[in-house]
Amino acid sequence: MSQQQTVPPAGNPAETAGTAGAPGGPQGPTPAAPRGGTARRGFWAGRSELIMPLLVAGIATWLAIETATMNVMGDSVPGPQFFPTIVCIVLYAVALVHAIQLLRHPRLPDLTDDAVNADTSSDLLGDLASASERGRERIAGRTPGATLPQGWKTYTDWKTVGLIVGGIAVFILVLPVLGWVLSAAGLFWVVCKALGSQRPLFDLIISLVFSSVIQLAFNAGLGLNLPGGFLEGLI
Amino acid sequence: MDQLNLLLEGFGSALTPINLLWVLIGALLGTAVGVLPGLGSSMAVALLLPITFTLDPTAAFIMFAGVYFGGLFGDSTAGILLNTPGNSAAIAGSFEGHRMAKDGRAAKALATAAVGAFVGGLIATTLVVFFAPLLVKMATAFGPAEYFALAVFAFLAISSVVSESVVKGLGALGIGLVLAMVGVDGPSGTVRYTLGMPQLFDGISIVVITVGLLALGEVLHIAGRIHRDPAMERIGTNGRARLERTDVRKALPAWLRGTAFGVPFGIIPAGGAEVPTFLAYGTEKRLAKRRGDKEFGSTGSIRGVAAPEAAGNATAGTAMGALLALGLPTSATAAIMLAAFQQYGMQPGPLLFERSGELVWTLLASLFIGLVVLVILNMQFAVVWAKLLLIPRHYLYAGITVLSMLGVYAISSSTLDLWVLLVIGLLGFVMRRYQFPLAPVLIAVVLGPLAETELRRALTVSEGDVSVLVSSPVTVILYSVLVLALVVSALQHLRHRRQKSAAALGGTGEGPDGGSGGSGGSGGEPVAPSGPTGSTAAADASGPSGTARETEKMGTRL
Q1: Which of B177, B281, B399 sits opposite A87 (nearest CB)?
Q2: In 10 A of CB B439, how many CB atoms?
Q3: What are the extents of the domains in chain A?
Q4: How far is CA A37 from CA A7, A114, B500, in A?
Q5: Which of A107, B122, B366, B490 has a CB 3.0–4.6 Å from the CB of B65, allowing a cystine?
Q6: Smallest Cα distance from A233 to chain B, Å
Q7: Is the CB of A63 less than 8 angstroms away from the CB of B178?
Q8: What stretches pass through the bilayer (chain A) (predicted)?
């Protein structure tokens, strides 16, 4: 996946805790860097999405191999391989068309793109609401005219995502050993930290309270057994 | 009036103190999750679903009735005050709602939304009570071919007709179908796609999939962009949300119009309330134009809030009817509800009313109670709910992460489920990153097994003759409507693509114009003139001429 950190990392992420956005909120300079960066963009710029057709084709291939080598039981006529074959064909077709679309029209990141709603067609909704162009932008999930914070990035922040995924993996590994209270508190704390919390000690207290309340409510109140870990017997 | 007696019995078992407590807890939790910015009602249902599994079925479904409508009530609060609607069904209501809030009428907008949601939900649920037996009768006449046609209709309507991109929609659908096929194949007993792991013989739990895609995927998505999201402007509200007589007189017709749009869409598998809410909003907009209403699009019209909110909850109400009577989930949220039934070993559909009639009528009664509780909670304590918007986002998402883990672990205390959850969360993340719709995955996971079984059953009976699939009037009608919808949607996509390329050639670029509809002024968002979005701000500043041109174009377009 092409990771281009064209925007210089800013000192303070504009993650405002309590005072979520006073009107004159954090304002950054025009993120001109991504545009300037477009001059020397490589083949992968705007085409990182090719990972999706690859993923879909990969799933289809796995499906095909598993279907072909399936140990079929029974002898009903449309057997257990029938439906997967149809799905497999659809997946290959979708992957092919999607890849061709991306090769022909790379999609550069949109500066005002803000979590596009992919579940519903914005064209359809825009027509239904007889929306203006600006309204259509809003429907599509963009925020035209929004105040962009300092250190604004067009690309996925892999460090934060990696921290959280890592945190979850560690949580799953230590859950049987450390028990729910400590593991869940640790996970809560890591996610807070990754998402830009500035108060590690205060977070620690909140995490412990949060996980303990869940343990108490579920073990005592609802009768669900969460692992106690080595603290078993102590609490 | 058989239904009335049954419903009264339902009320009888729902109106016990402990069950009222469950409704209240559900309503509180649902509203809370809905209010929180960026979290919608489907997330509320997905997160809270596994936690209810420790309860007995009746208590769990009573609580769910509260969560189901509560999320919808809450969605509009975030939309009105923050301009960040919790899910896409709340977008339409937030247009005028946020304008009213900026005009200092936040409390009134919240009250209009709450009463609208109440009216829509109430009428729709009443209709369900009276027409559910009719739907059940219809459904019992359905054979394998008809059920397969219904499933295909739901698949293609949600993945192709209403989704942003047909290719991505079909891709998401396929991924969902693959997830649904893991495990032992029912009809033949063949073990499929389990990677040799006996824990997967029962398939991947739908709960793991919904929590992974909706909750964990969302957390990772936010994590990937948390240091760059534009700052939001929060509007405070004070006083109790109250409506005066003149407001009610204005809003009442809009509530009813919205409900009329919402009711039929609950039964059509078209992805939920987006289409009816926008339809309701568009109608109000056109009516306002004809009436010469100056408020609409500038300071915010009460009717523009009332209609979409009523439509949204009316859709949710009848969607519950379609789910209970036909076993057909018409939206992602309904698909999760269906998963809840399956978790308790119940299959929604015609047989549910016979086998678990008592539970169904208690659930319907709880929906009514939930609506009453919710309208009180939202009218009286609007200010308190707005306080939830102050929770820092890192605590919010840390909480969601931990609760997802808890929910999935609660199903069967297995760490393998947690690993599957993480993988599906990552899948949800990349899908969001590249704007793949998630609703088709959920629908495919829920309806996939049904589609496969019924298709094979139909073909076995006909000995491989494919024409059996289109041999009855019901199937012919379903497929014709589907083809018609696909053609209309294709034409619409083509037209917009042509307009976009024409605009690009004309040199107008992507510059959106200011204002909306007929109103001249830019009655829109908080535009900071010094804002860094150079092109956008500039286009806004040079608004008027552009607006006039655009309005003209809109006129011819519609």
Answers
A1: B177
A2: 28
A3: 43-104, 110-149, 158-231
A4: 9, 21, 25
A5: B366
A6: 19
A7: yes
A8: 50-70, 82-103, 161-189, 201-222
